[in-house]
Amino acid sequence: MTPESAVADRPQSVRFVLSADSSPGLLPRLLQPFARRDLMPDAVVARCIGTLMHVEIAVAAMPWEALTYVEGNLRQIVGVRSLIRDTADTIPVAA
């Protein structure tokens, strides 16, 4: 096993921070890419500010191969205006 493949095999801590147009069905649509891959977010924080919703979704151990697929799915959701992916060893989630 090469060092590069060892990194790719190791689960990653990830936090997705996004802004989207507020709508009643937004949160279920944001969680669907995780559910499809049998992943359970460790934290979900959502705030509605005016007509925008700011959401943070954190997963402590996401398989590397699922990371790009979930990010791509989140970017395709109608109403999502911006998405930032943050990967680190420890990721705090805003309360």
Description:
The chain is of the alpha+beta class and 95 residues long. It is built from 3 helices and 4 strands. Helix 2 runs antiparallel to helix 3. The protein is globular, with a radius of gyration of 14 Å. A 4-stranded antiparallel beta sheet has the order 2-3-1-4, covered by helices on one side.
Would you summarize the structure shown here?
With 95 residues, the protein is an alpha+beta fold.
What radius of gyration results from the CA coordinates?
A: 14 Å
Protein structure class: alpha+beta
Strand content: 35-45%
Counting DSSP E segments of at least 2 residues, the number of strands comes to: 4
Q: What is the succession of H and E elements?
A: HEHEEHE
Average pLDDT works out at: 87
Based on CA inertia axes, which overall geometry fits?
A: globular
